Amino acid sequence: MQHTVLTGDRPTGPLHLGHYFGSLANRVRLQDRFPMYVLVADYQVITDRDLPGEIQRNITELLLDYLAVGLDPAKVTIFQHSAVPELNQLMLPFLSLVTVSELSRNPTVKDEIAHSSQKAVSGLMFTYPVHQAADILFCKGTLVPVGKDQLPHLEVTRTIARRFNERYGRVFPVPEAMLGERPLLQGLDGGKMSKSRGNAIALSATEDETAALIRKARTDSERLITYDEENRPQVANLLMIASLCLGRPPAELAAEIGYGGAAALKRLTTDAVNDFLRPIRKRRNEHGEAEVREILAEGNRRARERAVVTLDEVRVAMGF
Ligand code: TRP
Prior knowledge:
Layout: E1 5-9, H1 17-30, E2 36-40, H2 55-69, E3 76-80, H3 85-95, H4 100-104, H5 107-115, H6 123-137, E4 143-146, H7 151-168, E5 176-179, H8 207-216, H9 233-246, H10 250-257, H11 261-284, H12 289-318
Parallel strand pairs: 1-2, 2-3, 4-5
Helix pairs in contact: 2-11, 3-6, 3-12, 6-7, 8-11, 9-10, 9-11
């Protein structure tokens, strides 16, 4: 099967381990096999805040994260919403294909509203999953490597593709999600690991910052360490983080720690994470601002070329 891969991130802060195991690792693997687009979702930043904030800084950092984990701009088209008007225009016909009640049932949107600092919910918060359909369908993406929290959005995209094809004739493929090794890592406070919630281990954090974050992680007072996701979610989460970094089963690590308690668990996890991230952090320092700006300019040009073709097809199919 010939796939086109599309995925993306909001430039709101540094990428973290949850992104790595949820999606980035898959991207790096897929870039050698399929054409791939990676979106810097800059317009999606203003879904849960009033202002884009340090957007240029965040975009640079995001590109450095991409290069650090091994995305290769010679193989991958890296681009941004705000540079591709034809992608954004697809949102308009797509909005006509979903109902208000479908939009208001989206569990990920509900969770984001609950954690937003805004006083009121903007129209963009409700409709950005439709914008995300434009992200995926502008290049006729068929495979979308994402974390589990993105599955409701992917359902919206699939619905839009199907309905467009039913109403206007077949234009779009119906894309599939590709879940990472570990669909959803928890944050160190027990909530969703999130760059804006201060509970995540950033790929770009220093070894000391990493150690401090893990030291603060919530655990329980049981000395015997066991892997029990149901009853000891926080301990299990640390074990899972260590397990992913070491490539060893979490129960085996638990058995090794035995009666060492939370302190030994945290020591092991800290070492595992820092060892794992060391080469990634090193590679990050080998790239600079001017280089990432060039990569983005070239990606934007390529993405726009693709978007123009799809928007034309859409207009013709709809009879405009
Ligand atoms: N919503 C995604 C996130 O918060 C980012 C994103 C934007 C995305 N557009 C996308 C992911 C398209 C996959 C496909 O992580």
